[in-house]
Amino acid sequence: MKFIRNDHSIEKEVESHLSDKFGKAVEINSSGSLGGGCINNASKIETNAGTFFLKWNGNCASDIFLREAESLEELRNAASGQLAVPKVFAAKEVNGTPGFLVLEYLEPGWGKGNSDEKLGRGLATIHRFSSEKFGFYNDNYCGSTPQNNSWHTSWPEFFRDNRLRYLLGLIRQERSLPASEMKVYEQLLERIPELIPGDCTPVLIHGDLWSGNYMNTANGPALIDPASYYANYEMEMGIMTMFGGFSQRFYSAYNEVNPLPAGWRERNSLYQLYHVLNHYYLFGGGYGSQAFHIAKSYL
Questions:
Q1: 298 φ, ψ to 5°?
Q2: Cβ atoms of residues 277 and 142 within 8 Å
Q3: Helix H or strand E encompassing 103
Q4: pTM of the shown model
């Protein structure tokens, strides 16, 4: 049987986790490699308990799959059936052997009706799922970048300290950031409470919703690869508008359920800044100058 790069130790661990989940012996009958992202490996696995999606990696943060599982479960609860979110069947940390995540397999395809409108209404439904504070139950990852999710009662403070300041600290450790540029970022950090509203309700967001992190299935659009936390929902629009891929039909349907407030476009580049800085941290290149340009534009 051809399996995960002939790594039968992963095969046996997956079978063990699924056997515990279903209360019976689960065996993998076949598998096929899928086009994964830039971080993890991915396969479709056929078992005597059904078909599943498997992603795995041994060269990543030890808890990355556990944290993704938490995000998926929270999104699935918040979506209330309005959007598909794959069910989590097993999650394992990296501990000498690769970590993995076993999910419900979603068949790519096109369901009946308008996918863009369903995605808009479904995301708006998620953005009405609230918490008392900004943050999340555990720190997690945006891609492979750590996210500090410690709880805050203030959105400007959370965005300033847990997102921008924290990420700038990572960049200073791993990449060059001239003192002259850091001075500009420090000036921006001081202005954050003036630039973004503090009177907002913490709501659940996907956290990394670019066009590659949702898919169309026979049952409608589905969200995948989240980096979730409770935030001002305007934060979601930063990454969504950074690369495009969301139609006017999507935004119209979204606004029917959860209208975007006046002035959100003026603040949007500020929320994009977090993701541009993250891309600079991960990939380097021109993202650094792009981020610096955004920072200066708000001074």
A1: -100, 10
A2: no
A3: strand 99-104
A4: 0.95
240 touches 270 (CB < 8 A): no
Backbone angles phi, psi at 176, to 5 degrees: -75, 140
Helix, strand and coil in the chain, % to nearest 5: 45, 20, 35
The ranges of the chain annotated as CATH 3.90.1200.10 are 115-297
What DSSP state is assigned to residue 112?
Answer: S
pLDDT means per 10 residues in the chain (299 residues)? 56 95 95 74 95 94 97 98 96 93 92 84 98 99 98 99 99 93 98 96 98 91 98 98 95 98 97 99 96 98
Instruction: Name the class of domain 115-297.
Output: alpha beta
Catalytic residues: 208
**Helix (H) or strand (E) run with residue 156 in it:** helix 155-157
Q: Which residues pair with 103 in a beta bridge?
A: 53, 88
Strands 99-104 and 214-217: unpaired
